[in-house]
Amino acid sequence: MRTRRTSAHDAHGRGRLLTHGAFWRILRPIMSKKLDMEILASLCKRRGFIFQSSELYGGINGFWDYGPLGCELKRNIKNAWWKHIVRTREDVVGLDATIIMHPAIWKASGHADGFADPMVDCKDCRKRFRADQLCEEQGLELIKDGKTVALPDGAKCPACGSRNLTAPRSFNLMFKTFVGPIEDDSNAAWLRPETAQAIFAQFSNIIATARQKVPFGVAQMGKSFRNEINPRNYTFRSREFEQMELEFFIRPDEAVELICGRVTTLADKPDLTGEPQESWGWEVWLHYWIEQRLAWYRSIGLPAEHLELYWQTGDELAHYARACVDIEYAFPFGVQELEGIAARGDFDLTQHQRHSGKQMDVFDEALKQAADKLDAAAKEAFTEKVVAEWTARNQSPEAARAFVAKLFEGKYVPHVVEPSAGTDRLALALLSNAYDEETLTDDKGKTDQRTVMRFHPSIAPIKLGVFPLVKNKPELYAKAREIFAQLQRRWNCFWDESGAIGRRYRRMDEAGTPWCATVDFQTLEDGTVTLRDRDSMQQVRLSVPELIQKLDTEIG
User: Fold this and answer.
1) Are the CB atoms for 206 and 92 separated by under 8 Å?
2) What is the pTM of this model?
C-alpha cells in the first residue's frame, strides 16, 4: 500500500524530474516486511526503546518518550547523520538554533498564513479528522478548486460511520505560545514547525564567519513541533519530533554558465559519486544529494529493496520548487516518506530578504571576473537569453533583467538543495527493518523461538554485552569487570551477570546487540574471551586486542 500526503507542511519544495524520471528508477522493486506494528510496539516498550509519553496519567496522543535503548538508538542515528553530512565534508558547517524564533520569520516563510491542513469534524460523534486522510482511507478524491477543498459525496466518519460531516476548513499546525508575562497578540510566538528556517535567517552571519563560499551547506538537527490533527502509525506522525536538515547553497545556473562557459546537466552523465564540479547545474546537484543520501541509508542497514524514490508531480509541488523527490521506506503500514530532497531555488532567502529589508545576496569573485571579460554585445546576448528562459517559465522579463544586472556585479541570492529527514521516522524504519523472529532447532530436535533485532552495528544501541561465565568466582568476576571497564570506555557496552548464558544472549538479541563477550576460565589462562555473533550465533575466541580491532572495523 502506498499512501500519499497532501498537507502543506509536507510540501517543502517538491518537483518533477523533468525528462529524467526513468533514469532514477534503478532501485529494486519495493518490498514490504510482514510485521504487526502492535508486536513491534510491545517489544519497544518491553525492552525500553519507546514509551507512551505521560503514560502514568493515561498518555498524551502524538507524543513519545525514548527509553534507555531508544535514546541510544536515536543518538547513534544523529551521530551517523552528522558524521556523514558535516564531519566528513569540508563544504558543510553546522547550526544549533532556538526552538522559538521571531514571529516574522514564520510570516516570511509562509508558515503563518499557509501552514495548514484541511480539517473536518463529525457532527454526531464530534471527532476530528484530516480531510485528505479521510478521503484516502475511503478510496475517495478530495475535491480541490484552487486553494479551497471540499469533501466528495460518500465521505463518512471513520469512527461512527455518520455522513454528517462539516465542510473542510483550514487548521494551522503551529503550536502557539507567548513570550513574556502578558498573553496577548503582541507577545505571540510559535514553536518551530521545522529546523530549516533558522538556517536561512542566519545565512548572512554564517557566511560571514564560517570561511565558506558557495557552494556550501549548513546542517541542523533538532526538535520541531506540529499540531497534527490525527497523529497515527505509532511514532511515524507525531506532534513533537526531531529533524535532520541540510540547506546546501549553490550558484544559480546562470552564474555557473558565466563562470564556466556551460552548465553540466544530467545529459552529460556526470560522475555523481566523485567530487562535485564547479560546472554542475541545480539538477545535477539535486541528483548528487540523492545519491549521497541513498548511500548513507544503505550504510546504516536499510536495504535498497525496501527503499524507493517518489518524484513529486506538478500538482504536489510547492509553487517555487523546481523538483523534489521523496526517499520512501516500506513500513508495515505502507510506503511512506523518510526524507524529502528538494530544489527550492532562491525562494527562502529571497523571502527573508523581502520581509527583513536585509540583503541576502553574496559576492562571488569568480563571477565578477567572468562578467568583466564580456563586452557589451556579449552581455546583451546573455541578458536576452536569460530573459527568454525566464519568460518560458512564466517569470517576468523585468525580474530577469534585474537578476542579470546583479550577476554582472558578481552578486546573486544563492539557490538551495534541501535534504530533510525525520529522525523519529528513520528510527521507526530501522526498528521495523531490524525486527526478526526465527525458529531454532538444536541437535536433539528441540525447537526454540528467537526474537532478534538485527541493527547495523553503527546504530545498535548497545555494541557489546560482557558476561562473566559465573559470578561466584572472585578472580573470574574481577577479570570480567576489568575487561568490561576497558571496553566501556570505547563503546556503549552492557554488563549482565544474571541467569544462564543462553538467557543473557536472548536478552541481548532483543536489544539488537551485535556481539556478546563471555569471560570464562580460559580467559584467566590465555586472556581470550568467547565472542558470540548475534546474527550467525557463531562463537570464536579472541584476545581483547583482537576483539577491539574487530569491533572498530565493523562499527566504523
Assistant:
1) no
2) 0.86
